[in-house]
């Protein structure tokens, strides 16, 4: 897998553990807690592998941007968090920044 693919996987795990935190209920539920911890470890492992070839500034920005965008969307879908056009406009700007970084590393 190439570095950008590794970074995409890292971003997906970033989203999974961030969303998983909500299900842990303060790490009081065993299975969601274990899955969240494993997701965070996997996220860091894939990020570290991507960093072998990608610049830190680009990789970290994409990784956190994916996390922000993904958790924001899933917060609305899974937890019925507030939805507003402005919120999704600014998430769209984050996504545009991620695409821009990918196209112009």
Helix share, percent: over 70%
Report the β-strand fraction as a percent range: under 5%
Q: How does the helix and strand content classify structurally? A: mainly alpha
Mean pLDDT: 94
Which residue ranges are poorly predicted, with pLDDT under 50 across at least 5 consecutive positions?
A: none
Q: Report the count of strand segments.
A: 0
Radius of gyration: 14 Å
Report the principal-axis shape.
Answer: flat
| Largest β sheet strand count, sense and barrel closure | none
- What is the domain total for the residues? 1
- What order do the helices and strands follow? HHHH
Helical segment tally? 4
Distance between the termini: 18 Å
Descriptive notes:
The structure is a single chain. The chain is mainly alpha-helical and about 100 residues long. It has one domain. About 80% of the residues lie in helices and about 0% in strands. Helix 1 runs parallel beside helix 3 and helix 3 runs antiparallel to helix 4. The radius of gyration is 14 Å and the shape is flat. The model has no long low-confidence stretch (mean pLDDT about 95).
Strands, helices and their partners?
Elements: H1 3-24, H2 30-50, H3 56-79, H4 85-103
Helix pairs in contact: 1-2, 1-3, 3-4
In summary, what is this structure?
With 105 residues, the chain is mainly α.
Features:
105 residues, 82% helix, single chain, mainly alpha, flat
